[in-house]
Specification:
- With 146 residues, the protein is an all-alpha fold.
- The protein has 2 domains: 52 residues; 79 residues, no CATH class.
- It contains 7 helices and no strands.
- α1 runs antiparallel to α2, α4 crosses α6 and α6 packs parallel to α7.
- The protein is rod-shaped and about 100 Å long.
- The N and C termini lie far apart (67 Å).
Length: 146
């Protein structure tokens, strides 16, 4: 319920209360409820709406999709996570697309930041972040071969 709806209800109640003393001048079925009952119903309605609004606001929403990524705090955890969960067939663009769609940008940014020990640029998109993470592991493999 928006503020305008609330004002309309309040005006209706004010009108009802103002005309209630001369209710005998109108048809019997126009004033079926005493003023106390009307006020009680309106107050309950407003309280219910308010409690629903606060319940929605109070849920802390994580900016991460994958809880394991959110809990990561070291480079080793990021390496283990990548090696156990993010290996895909690099010859398949479909496999890469599927992996990219699984993660939120914040997930990939955190993994990138932990591996490279620097904050990921906001200009990087999810594909760029995954490419940079892959490149990190490619460079490690290349260095091991020497």
């Amino acid at each position: 319920m928006n503020a305008n709806d609330k004002k309309v209800l309040e005006n209706l109640v004010k009108s009802y209360v103002a005309v209630y003393p001369i209710k005998d001048s109108f048809k019997k079925d126009y004033f079926n409820y005493p003023i106390e009952k009307i006020n009680e119903v309106i107050n309950n309605l407003f309280e219910e709406i308010q409690s629903k609004a606060t319940a929605k606001k109070s849920k802390p929403k994580s900016k991460f999709k994958v809880p394991e990524v959110e809990k990561m705090s070291t480079k080793e955890e990021a390496k283990d996570y990548y090696l156990n969960n993010m290996i895909y067939d690099r010859t398949s663009s479909e496999a890469k697309k599927k992996l990219i769609n699984f993660y939120l940008k914040e997930d990939l940014k955190k993994i990138y930041s932990l591996l490279n020990e620097k904050k990921a640029s906001n200009n990087l998109n999810k594909t760029d972040l995954l490419n940079q993470i892959d490149l990190y592991f490619d460079n490690i493999d290349r260095a091991k071969k020497f």
